[in-house]
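pinned: reference chain
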Amino acid sequence: MIQHDLDPEPDWLASWVEHRLHETCPVGVGPARLYGLEFIDPGGFVDPSWPAGRLTFVDEGGDASALALGLSCAEALDRFDALALCVTRWEPATSPLPRPGGHPVRRRARVVTVVSDAGAATALRFDHDTERVEVWSGLAAAGIAGVQLAAMWSGRGS
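pinned: its structure tokens
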């Protein structure tokens, strides 16, 4: 891990990691996966197609919380500039809007939460509209495993 003068914005990192995963893995059912991210060009993360970093697979498992709190995550904390947790889950779709009194349509989504020294962000890509990505600052859309990953990150070195 190298000290950088400028840490990329968490939104950029989440968008960049989601773009990289979309190039290699379709949105679908699969185990939770943990990735480490090394910054090569910290300013380049603003463009998801730019080779600004190196994404490294760390571990996978059926329980995202166990993965975020596990030994492989603890070991990865000091080896990477950021960590990313990728899970597939059902999320309420933002469109179509439900009828009055109806329930929102739920769609399968890949949820990527990235934590770094600059903070955290989450990117969602739905299986029914794979060209659209929603990026959220902070941990509002991260789920409990994303919050646990952020807690592990903030507690490293102590």
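why pinned: The first strand starts at residue 32 and ends at 39. The chain is about 25% helix and 35% strand.
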